[in-house]
Amino acid sequence: MADTPLLTQRFVHPDVSPSSTATPSATPDDTMPALAPGQKDKLGRVMIEPDGSSWHPAKDAARTLKDCVRRLYTQAYHTLGVRSQITMCTWESRYNLVIGTTFERKASAKLSSWLKKVRDSDKFKAILDQVKKARGSLKGGSLHTRGAKTVGTINNFHQYVAENLDSSVQLTAKLSTQIWKEKVVGGTYKGRVYGIGSSRQAEALDGVKISAMSDQIAKLTMALAESERRRVAEQESMSETVQQIKEQEKQRTA
């Protein structure tokens, strides 16, 4: 049915085959038999109706809610939105929006409470502690879970630079790569440097940067020299003008 609520496109009972979910859960008013809440139709679905912020009968609807959520999330999902329709309950089509909204709210609360129980368990806390220790480990890369460089390796690099590099020498990109290759990595392996990638690419990139910086420095030096030449010329011109004014004043007073 075209007006099936959004929720019924997100949850499916896993025991029902895809072909059997083609029939909407909400039956149109003109074809719905006279069923009282709690009774089942020919497909075995329990008739429910809105009852404030819940459904009536609440017991059957709550059982269906738990079963839908529990059987759906048997493995890791990237999103909470999963397949087709609810096939264990039915309702009048005029209740589509109310039933769907209530189901989304209650299913979200139920799933959140189950996840909270997992997060509060000792087993999950032990896993979190192990992951934190791995991220902060100063040992080899086997315990490190993020990035190509371990915390210990980076600390060793900075310690070596602080102890061996003269403070008057600027740590350029080329020098940094050279120190990393020779002192931290111990050379290259098949043209690749641990934590950097291809040694040739790194060296070529450093060469391009250095060349561009050299050109920029040369241009700035020329501009500075030209500015200094103009300043000296203006100063000399000003001195000549002042001298001429002084001579004219002397002639007037003579």
TrEMBL record:
Bias type Polar residues, positions: 236-245
Residue span of region Disordered: 13-36, 231-254
Compositional bias ranges of the Low complexity kind: 14-34
Protein name: Uncharacterized protein
